[in-house]
Write the C-alpha coordinates for this entry.
Amino acid sequence: MQNKLIELKQEFILKLENTVDIIELENISKDFIWKNGKLQEILKWIKDLSNDDKKIIWPEANKLRDFILEEIEKKEVQIEESKYANIEELEKIDVSAEYTKKPLWHKHPISITSNLLEEIFISMWFKIEDGPQVENERLNFDMLNIPDNHPARDVWDTFWISDEINKNKAPWEKVLLRTHTSPVQVREMLKWTLPIKIIVPGRVFRYEQEDARHTCNFYQLEWLVVWEKVTFWDLKGTLETAMKKLLWEKTSLRFRPSIFPFTEPSAEIDVSCQICSGTWEKNGKNCSMCSGSGWVELLGAWMVHPKVLSGAWIDPEIYSWFAFGMWIDRIAAQRFGVNSSRMFYQSKLKLNEQF
Ligand code: DAH
Protein backbone atom coordinates (compact mmCIF):
# COMPACT_ATOMS: atom_id res chain seq x y z
CA MET A 1 0.00 0.00 0.00
CA GLN A 2 2.80 2.37 0.92
CA ASN A 3 4.40 1.66 -2.43
CA LYS A 4 1.20 2.58 -4.20
CA LEU A 5 1.21 5.93 -2.45
CA ILE A 6 4.84 6.50 -3.43
CA GLU A 7 4.11 5.59 -7.06
CA LEU A 8 1.11 7.89 -7.10
CA LYS A 9 3.22 10.74 -5.73
CA GLN A 10 5.83 10.23 -8.43
CA GLU A 11 3.22 10.06 -11.17
CA PHE A 12 1.70 13.27 -9.86
CA ILE A 13 5.07 15.08 -9.69
CA LEU A 14 5.87 14.07 -13.26
CA LYS A 15 2.53 15.25 -14.61
CA LEU A 16 2.70 18.50 -12.71
CA GLU A 17 6.15 19.28 -14.02
CA ASN A 18 4.97 19.19 -17.61
CA THR A 19 1.88 21.28 -17.02
CA VAL A 20 1.86 24.83 -18.31
CA ASP A 21 -1.78 25.79 -18.39
CA ILE A 22 -4.61 26.14 -15.94
CA ILE A 23 -7.04 23.77 -17.64
CA GLU A 24 -4.50 21.01 -17.70
CA LEU A 25 -3.86 21.67 -14.02
CA GLU A 26 -7.52 21.34 -13.22
CA ASN A 27 -7.62 18.01 -15.02
CA ILE A 28 -4.70 16.79 -12.92
CA SER A 29 -6.41 17.78 -9.73
CA LYS A 30 -9.59 15.97 -10.88
CA ASP A 31 -7.54 12.97 -11.82
CA PHE A 32 -5.70 12.69 -8.51
CA ILE A 33 -7.74 14.04 -5.62
CA TRP A 34 -11.34 14.52 -6.64
CA LYS A 35 -14.03 11.97 -5.88
CA ASN A 36 -13.23 8.86 -7.97
CA GLY A 37 -9.71 10.20 -8.40
CA LYS A 38 -6.60 8.01 -8.09
CA LEU A 39 -6.03 8.78 -4.41
CA GLN A 40 -9.63 7.91 -3.56
CA GLU A 41 -9.19 4.59 -5.35
CA ILE A 42 -6.28 3.75 -3.05
CA LEU A 43 -8.13 4.90 0.03
CA LYS A 44 -10.93 2.49 -0.74
CA TRP A 45 -8.54 -0.34 0.10
CA ILE A 46 -7.60 1.11 3.48
CA LYS A 47 -10.76 -0.16 5.13
CA ASP A 48 -9.57 -3.76 4.49
CA LEU A 49 -6.25 -3.20 6.28
CA SER A 50 -5.43 -4.19 9.84
CA ASN A 51 -5.76 -1.48 12.45
CA ASP A 52 -2.00 -1.20 12.82
CA ASP A 53 -1.51 -0.75 9.11
CA LYS A 54 -4.34 1.73 9.00
CA LYS A 55 -2.54 3.82 11.64
CA ILE A 56 0.48 4.05 9.36
CA ILE A 57 -1.24 4.43 5.99
CA TRP A 58 -3.90 7.00 6.95
CA PRO A 59 -1.39 9.72 7.90
CA GLU A 60 0.66 8.85 4.80
CA ALA A 61 -2.38 9.16 2.56
CA ASN A 62 -3.42 12.44 4.21
CA LYS A 63 0.12 13.77 3.79
CA LEU A 64 0.04 12.89 0.12
CA ARG A 65 -3.35 14.57 -0.26
CA ASP A 66 -2.05 17.76 1.39
CA PHE A 67 1.07 17.62 -0.72
CA ILE A 68 -0.96 17.35 -3.93
CA LEU A 69 -3.24 20.22 -2.93
CA GLU A 70 -0.32 22.42 -1.99
CA GLU A 71 1.61 21.68 -5.17
CA ILE A 72 -1.42 22.35 -7.33
CA GLU A 73 -1.92 25.68 -5.62
CA LYS A 74 1.73 26.61 -6.09
CA LYS A 75 1.61 25.59 -9.71
CA GLU A 76 -1.50 27.70 -10.26
CA VAL A 77 0.27 30.79 -8.93
CA GLN A 78 3.30 29.96 -11.07
CA ILE A 79 1.20 29.64 -14.25
CA GLU A 80 -0.62 32.93 -13.56
CA GLU A 81 2.62 34.76 -12.91
CA SER A 82 4.28 33.41 -16.02
CA LYS A 83 1.49 34.95 -18.10
CA TYR A 84 2.61 38.40 -17.06
CA ALA A 85 6.33 37.76 -16.87
CA ASN A 86 6.97 39.06 -20.37
CA ILE A 87 4.20 41.57 -20.48
CA GLU A 88 6.48 44.59 -20.27
CA GLU A 89 8.52 43.28 -23.15
CA LEU A 90 5.52 42.27 -25.24
CA GLU A 91 3.50 45.41 -24.76
CA LYS A 92 6.33 47.86 -24.72
CA ILE A 93 5.55 51.28 -26.17
CA ASP A 94 8.51 53.47 -26.86
CA VAL A 95 7.12 56.94 -26.35
CA SER A 96 10.35 58.51 -27.49
CA ALA A 97 10.30 56.70 -30.86
CA GLU A 98 10.23 58.99 -33.88
CA TYR A 99 6.76 59.31 -35.32
CA THR A 100 6.16 61.23 -38.50
CA LYS A 101 2.59 62.20 -39.00
CA LYS A 102 1.74 61.86 -42.64
CA PRO A 103 -1.86 62.70 -43.37
CA LEU A 104 -3.41 60.83 -46.27
CA TRP A 105 -5.37 63.85 -47.39
CA HIS A 106 -5.03 67.61 -47.57
CA LYS A 107 -7.67 70.24 -47.22
CA HIS A 108 -7.92 72.26 -50.40
CA PRO A 109 -6.90 75.93 -50.02
CA ILE A 110 -10.34 76.99 -51.24
CA SER A 111 -12.06 74.84 -48.58
CA ILE A 112 -9.74 76.29 -45.95
CA THR A 113 -10.60 79.85 -47.02
CA SER A 114 -14.29 79.14 -47.32
CA ASN A 115 -14.36 77.56 -43.83
CA LEU A 116 -12.52 80.55 -42.37
CA LEU A 117 -14.97 82.95 -43.99
CA GLU A 118 -17.87 80.93 -42.60
CA GLU A 119 -16.34 81.04 -39.12
CA ILE A 120 -15.87 84.80 -39.31
CA PHE A 121 -19.42 85.45 -40.46
CA ILE A 122 -20.94 82.98 -38.03
CA SER A 123 -19.18 84.89 -35.24
CA MET A 124 -21.08 87.96 -36.53
CA TRP A 125 -24.37 86.05 -36.30
CA PHE A 126 -24.85 85.33 -40.00
CA LYS A 127 -26.76 82.25 -41.09
CA ILE A 128 -25.32 80.02 -43.82
CA GLU A 129 -27.62 79.31 -46.74
CA ASP A 130 -27.23 77.08 -49.77
CA GLY A 131 -28.73 76.94 -53.25
CA PRO A 132 -28.65 74.61 -56.27
CA GLN A 133 -25.73 74.72 -58.68
CA VAL A 134 -28.12 73.91 -61.51
CA GLU A 135 -30.35 76.96 -61.38
CA ASN A 136 -33.23 78.16 -63.51
CA GLU A 137 -32.89 81.05 -65.88
CA ARG A 138 -35.49 83.14 -64.09
CA LEU A 139 -33.64 83.15 -60.76
CA ASN A 140 -30.15 83.38 -62.24
CA PHE A 141 -31.07 86.28 -64.56
CA ASP A 142 -34.65 87.61 -64.83
CA MET A 143 -35.39 88.10 -61.14
CA LEU A 144 -32.03 89.78 -60.74
CA ASN A 145 -33.10 92.41 -63.24
CA ILE A 146 -31.22 90.83 -66.14
CA PRO A 147 -34.02 90.11 -68.64
CA ASP A 148 -33.46 88.27 -71.89
CA ASN A 149 -31.51 90.41 -74.40
CA HIS A 150 -29.99 92.51 -71.58
CA PRO A 151 -26.36 93.17 -72.55
CA ALA A 152 -25.24 92.12 -69.05
CA ARG A 153 -26.09 88.52 -69.96
CA ASP A 154 -22.86 88.43 -71.95
CA VAL A 155 -20.82 89.17 -68.83
CA TRP A 156 -22.43 86.22 -67.07
CA ASP A 157 -22.42 83.83 -70.00
CA THR A 158 -22.70 80.28 -68.75
CA PHE A 159 -23.11 76.60 -69.62
CA TRP A 160 -26.67 75.67 -70.43
CA ILE A 161 -28.00 72.25 -69.61
CA SER A 162 -28.54 70.20 -72.77
CA ASP A 163 -31.21 71.25 -75.29
CA GLU A 164 -32.88 67.92 -74.71
CA ILE A 165 -33.81 68.89 -71.13
CA ASN A 166 -34.56 72.56 -71.85
CA LYS A 167 -36.45 71.90 -75.09
CA ASN A 168 -40.04 72.04 -73.81
CA LYS A 169 -39.54 74.59 -71.08
CA ALA A 170 -40.63 78.22 -71.04
CA PRO A 171 -37.67 80.52 -71.72
CA TRP A 172 -37.42 81.62 -68.07
CA GLU A 173 -37.52 78.07 -66.77
CA LYS A 174 -34.61 76.70 -68.71
CA VAL A 175 -31.87 75.35 -66.51
CA LEU A 176 -28.25 76.35 -66.53
CA LEU A 177 -25.16 76.14 -64.35
CA ARG A 178 -25.54 79.17 -62.09
CA THR A 179 -23.16 82.02 -62.86
CA HIS A 180 -23.18 83.48 -59.37
CA THR A 181 -24.52 82.87 -55.88
CA SER A 182 -26.86 85.90 -56.20
CA PRO A 183 -29.96 83.81 -57.13
CA VAL A 184 -29.90 82.52 -53.54
CA GLN A 185 -30.66 86.13 -52.48
CA VAL A 186 -33.97 85.88 -54.32
CA ARG A 187 -34.65 82.38 -52.99
CA GLU A 188 -34.13 83.69 -49.46
CA MET A 189 -36.29 86.81 -49.95
CA LEU A 190 -39.11 84.64 -51.29
CA LYS A 191 -39.23 82.79 -47.98
CA TRP A 192 -40.57 86.05 -46.43
CA THR A 193 -38.87 85.55 -43.11
CA LEU A 194 -37.46 88.93 -42.27
CA PRO A 195 -34.99 90.17 -41.20
CA ILE A 196 -32.45 88.39 -43.37
CA LYS A 197 -28.80 88.07 -42.41
CA ILE A 198 -27.20 85.36 -44.51
CA ILE A 199 -24.06 84.26 -46.30
CA VAL A 200 -24.06 81.79 -49.19
CA PRO A 201 -20.77 80.11 -50.02
CA GLY A 202 -20.89 77.99 -53.17
CA ARG A 203 -19.64 76.91 -56.55
CA VAL A 204 -20.47 78.89 -59.69
CA PHE A 205 -19.72 78.51 -63.40
CA ARG A 206 -18.88 80.83 -66.29
CA TYR A 207 -18.17 80.47 -69.96
CA GLU A 208 -14.88 82.25 -69.54
CA GLN A 209 -11.51 82.80 -71.16
CA GLU A 210 -9.21 81.45 -68.45
CA ASP A 211 -6.32 83.44 -66.98
CA ALA A 212 -4.72 84.04 -63.55
CA ARG A 213 -7.98 85.45 -62.13
CA HIS A 214 -10.63 83.73 -64.24
CA THR A 215 -11.63 80.07 -64.36
CA CYS A 216 -14.67 78.27 -65.77
CA ASN A 217 -15.79 77.27 -62.33
CA PHE A 218 -14.95 78.96 -59.06
CA TYR A 219 -16.33 79.72 -55.62
CA GLN A 220 -18.23 82.76 -54.45
CA LEU A 221 -19.61 83.94 -51.16
CA GLU A 222 -22.83 85.93 -51.25
CA TRP A 223 -23.76 88.24 -48.38
CA LEU A 224 -27.25 89.64 -47.85
CA VAL A 225 -28.72 91.74 -45.09
CA VAL A 226 -32.31 92.94 -45.15
CA TRP A 227 -33.01 94.60 -41.85
CA GLU A 228 -34.32 97.75 -40.25
CA LYS A 229 -31.77 100.54 -40.18
CA VAL A 230 -28.66 98.95 -41.67
CA THR A 231 -26.33 101.34 -43.41
CA PHE A 232 -23.48 101.23 -45.86
CA TRP A 233 -21.14 101.46 -42.85
CA ASP A 234 -22.36 98.07 -41.66
CA LEU A 235 -21.35 96.59 -45.01
CA LYS A 236 -18.00 98.37 -45.00
CA GLY A 237 -17.29 97.49 -41.36
CA THR A 238 -18.14 93.79 -41.81
CA LEU A 239 -16.02 93.58 -44.90
CA GLU A 240 -13.01 95.29 -43.43
CA THR A 241 -13.14 93.12 -40.30
CA ALA A 242 -13.39 89.94 -42.37
CA MET A 243 -10.58 90.88 -44.78
CA LYS A 244 -8.22 91.97 -42.03
CA LYS A 245 -8.83 88.67 -40.23
CA LEU A 246 -8.32 86.66 -43.40
CA LEU A 247 -5.46 88.50 -45.02
CA TRP A 248 -3.42 90.81 -42.85
CA GLU A 249 -3.96 93.77 -40.58
CA LYS A 250 -2.50 96.22 -43.12
CA THR A 251 -4.85 95.12 -45.91
CA SER A 252 -6.51 98.12 -47.54
CA LEU A 253 -9.78 98.09 -49.39
CA ARG A 254 -10.66 100.29 -52.34
CA PHE A 255 -14.28 101.09 -53.21
CA ARG A 256 -15.05 101.96 -56.84
CA PRO A 257 -18.39 102.90 -58.37
CA SER A 258 -19.63 100.19 -60.70
CA ILE A 259 -22.73 98.84 -62.41
CA PHE A 260 -24.63 95.66 -61.65
CA PRO A 261 -28.20 95.26 -62.89
CA PHE A 262 -29.27 93.90 -59.49
CA THR A 263 -27.80 96.66 -57.29
CA GLU A 264 -28.38 100.39 -57.23
CA PRO A 265 -26.03 102.05 -56.46
CA SER A 266 -23.26 99.53 -57.12
CA ALA A 267 -19.63 99.27 -56.15
CA GLU A 268 -16.68 97.04 -56.77
CA ILE A 269 -14.29 96.51 -53.94
CA ASP A 270 -10.63 95.75 -54.39
CA VAL A 271 -8.01 94.59 -51.96
CA SER A 272 -4.35 95.65 -52.05
CA CYS A 273 -2.54 92.82 -53.85
CA GLN A 274 -0.64 90.61 -51.40
CA ILE A 275 1.18 88.75 -54.17
CA CYS A 276 3.25 91.80 -55.16
CA SER A 277 2.48 93.72 -51.93
CA GLY A 278 0.99 96.47 -54.05
CA THR A 279 4.30 97.03 -55.91
CA TRP A 280 2.74 95.84 -59.24
CA GLU A 281 5.73 93.72 -60.06
CA LYS A 282 6.67 90.12 -59.38
CA ASN A 283 10.03 88.65 -60.48
CA GLY A 284 10.71 91.57 -62.81
CA LYS A 285 7.35 91.21 -64.60
CA ASN A 286 3.98 92.80 -64.16
CA CYS A 287 2.23 90.89 -61.33
CA SER A 288 -0.16 88.46 -63.06
CA MET A 289 -2.63 88.46 -60.19
CA CYS A 290 -3.33 92.20 -60.22
CA SER A 291 -2.18 92.82 -63.84
CA GLY A 292 0.31 95.28 -62.43
CA SER A 293 -2.33 97.51 -60.85
CA GLY A 294 -1.55 96.75 -57.21
CA TRP A 295 -5.24 95.98 -56.57
CA VAL A 296 -7.32 92.83 -56.99
CA GLU A 297 -11.07 92.96 -57.42
CA LEU A 298 -12.59 90.84 -54.68
CA LEU A 299 -16.26 91.61 -54.79
CA GLY A 300 -19.24 93.41 -56.17
CA ALA A 301 -21.63 95.05 -53.74
CA TRP A 302 -24.09 97.62 -52.48
CA MET A 303 -27.84 98.08 -52.32
CA VAL A 304 -30.16 95.48 -53.78
CA HIS A 305 -32.03 97.01 -56.73
CA PRO A 306 -35.67 98.01 -55.87
CA LYS A 307 -36.86 95.87 -58.79
CA VAL A 308 -35.30 92.78 -57.19
CA LEU A 309 -36.92 93.63 -53.86
CA SER A 310 -40.34 94.34 -55.31
CA GLY A 311 -40.14 91.01 -57.16
CA ALA A 312 -40.01 89.45 -53.68
CA TRP A 313 -42.66 91.79 -52.15
CA ILE A 314 -40.37 93.40 -49.60
CA ASP A 315 -41.41 96.83 -48.33
CA PRO A 316 -38.58 99.33 -48.88
CA GLU A 317 -40.23 101.79 -46.50
CA ILE A 318 -39.44 99.55 -43.53
CA TYR A 319 -36.33 97.70 -44.47
CA SER A 320 -32.90 98.56 -45.80
CA TRP A 321 -30.76 96.07 -47.60
CA PHE A 322 -27.22 95.49 -48.66
CA ALA A 323 -25.50 92.70 -50.50
CA PHE A 324 -22.18 91.62 -51.85
CA GLY A 325 -20.72 88.71 -53.76
CA MET A 326 -17.04 87.89 -53.26
CA TRP A 327 -14.58 85.63 -55.05
CA ILE A 328 -13.35 83.00 -52.57
CA ASP A 329 -10.68 81.78 -55.02
CA ARG A 330 -9.12 85.19 -55.23
CA ILE A 331 -9.07 85.55 -51.47
CA ALA A 332 -7.44 82.09 -51.22
CA ALA A 333 -4.82 83.14 -53.79
CA GLN A 334 -4.14 86.32 -51.83
CA ARG A 335 -4.03 84.57 -48.49
CA PHE A 336 -1.70 81.78 -49.54
CA GLY A 337 0.41 83.73 -52.03
CA VAL A 338 -0.64 81.64 -55.05
CA ASN A 339 -0.20 83.77 -58.14
CA SER A 340 -2.90 82.17 -60.28
CA SER A 341 -6.36 80.90 -59.28
CA ARG A 342 -6.12 78.39 -62.13
CA MET A 343 -3.62 76.36 -60.09
CA PHE A 344 -6.38 75.50 -57.62
CA TYR A 345 -8.07 73.35 -60.26
CA GLN A 346 -5.06 71.59 -61.72
CA SER A 347 -4.76 68.92 -58.97
CA LYS A 348 -1.15 69.86 -58.42
CA LEU A 349 0.06 67.73 -55.54
CA LYS A 350 3.04 70.02 -55.08
CA LEU A 351 0.64 72.82 -54.25
CA ASN A 352 -2.03 70.84 -52.41
CA GLU A 353 0.43 68.98 -50.20
CA GLN A 354 1.47 72.26 -48.63
CA PHE A 355 -1.88 72.55 -46.88
N1 DAH B 1 -23.16 88.38 -58.58
C1 DAH B 1 -22.11 89.32 -58.93
C2 DAH B 1 -21.11 88.61 -59.84
O1 DAH B 1 -21.03 87.43 -59.81
C3 DAH B 1 -21.43 89.86 -57.73
C4 DAH B 1 -22.30 90.76 -56.91
C5 DAH B 1 -22.36 92.07 -57.13
C6 DAH B 1 -23.05 90.20 -55.87
C7 DAH B 1 -23.15 92.94 -56.34
C8 DAH B 1 -23.87 91.01 -55.09
C9 DAH B 1 -23.89 92.40 -55.33
O2 DAH B 1 -24.59 90.56 -54.08
O3 DAH B 1 -24.66 93.19 -54.52
O4 DAH B 1 -20.39 89.25 -60.53
Observations:
- DSSP finds 14 helices and eleven strands in the chain.
